[in-house]
Amino acid sequence: MGDNGEKYGDEIFSHGDDGEADPIEKERVDALAEALDPASFATLAAVPVGKDARCLEVGAGTGSVARWLADRFPKGSVTATDLDLDLIEEDERPNLRYLRHDVTSDDFPPSSFDLIHTRFLLPHLPSRDAVLGRMIQWLAPGGWLVLEESALFPFESSPHDCFRRTSLGVLAALGRSFGHDARWARNLPTLIAESGLVEASMSAACPPISAGSAMARFWRLTIEQLWPELLELPELSEDDADTALAQFDDPGFFDLGIATVTVTARRPPAST
Ligand SMILES: C[S@@+](CC[C@H](N)C(=O)[O-])C[C@H]1O[C@@H](n2cnc3c(N)ncnc32)[C@H](O)[C@@H]1O
Questions:
Q1: Which residue's CA lies nearest to atom 27 of ligand 1?
Q2: CA-CA 20 to 30 A from 188: which of 131, 133, 199, 255?
Q3: Domain that holds residue 82
């Protein structure tokens, strides 16, 4: 890992010490994977790459997508990277390697991969545009990029006043703390159109927040970890945060969670 890499949110989302995953952060990222994996697997299953594809999973978190890719491409290989490997659930596959790697500063040779996927990472990184450019360089001619990135627009129009203000407060606090940009993914259609990638397709989905849903667990744990920062925002009070958390246990509460903007596009194949 590069020493000068861009770490984000260390003081908010503790990843634990001495090689031990922080149990709360592990639960939070597990809940995110439970909420998003079914859609990610369906998206990735539709990408037309061969069984011998060389895959890169950037910011692998617990590694659920990396393990799925390794099973999907038994004759291929999967490199799963993260700045911090403590959250990874070790479950070995012969074609899967985990690599401590900072996507903002550590490199791969150009044209190394046939499929590159990342999820809920780039909005966190202040150098997100440059990182997108680096990932495109790592694609082989004809290789596919699949981005699944978070966007705040469902919160802006939520009819639940306290939930809306708390959720937007979370994203404002992340922005203030380490430069998270919760509007960046909404701009992906433009960025991809300008990127030189071709055959792009895009969609957005918002897994629901209701009592007991995986997205509710993820968002509740996110709010709880950010509690001190939320209380510094002038638009939020302790009562607001309490009310917002209580909604996650209310069987009558039902709303859209944070959006996932999914983009699939490929590097032009080499001309023959
Ligand atoms: C919100 S989690 C998402 C995990 C996983 N992609 C998922 O969707 O389940 C973001 C992940 O990105 C990793 N990460 C943060 N900064 C990174 C960087 N500069 N390079 C590589 N990984 C990074 C974090 O350690 C964390 O595991």
A1: 61
A2: 255
A3: 23-153+179-208+257-266
Q: Is the CB of 84 under 6 A from ligand 1?
A: yes
Distance 226 CA to ligand 1 centre (A): 17
Mutate to test the pocket of ligand 1, among 64, 82, 119, 174 (most ligand atoms within 8 A of CB): 82
Q: Is the pLDDT of residue 223 over 80?
A: yes
Confidence of residue 272 (pLDDT cuts 50, 70, 90): low
Sign of CA dihedral 61, 65, 68, 72: negative
3-state SS assignment for residue 50: coil
154 Ramachandran zone, left/alpha/beta (phi>0; psi -120 to 50) = alpha
Give pLDDT tens digits for 88-116. 988 889 999 999 999 999 999 999 999 99
Number of domain units in the chain:
1
The CATH number of the domain holding residue 127 is 3.40.50.150
Residue 80 lies in a domain: yes
Nearest protein CA to atom 20 of ligand 1, as residue: 102
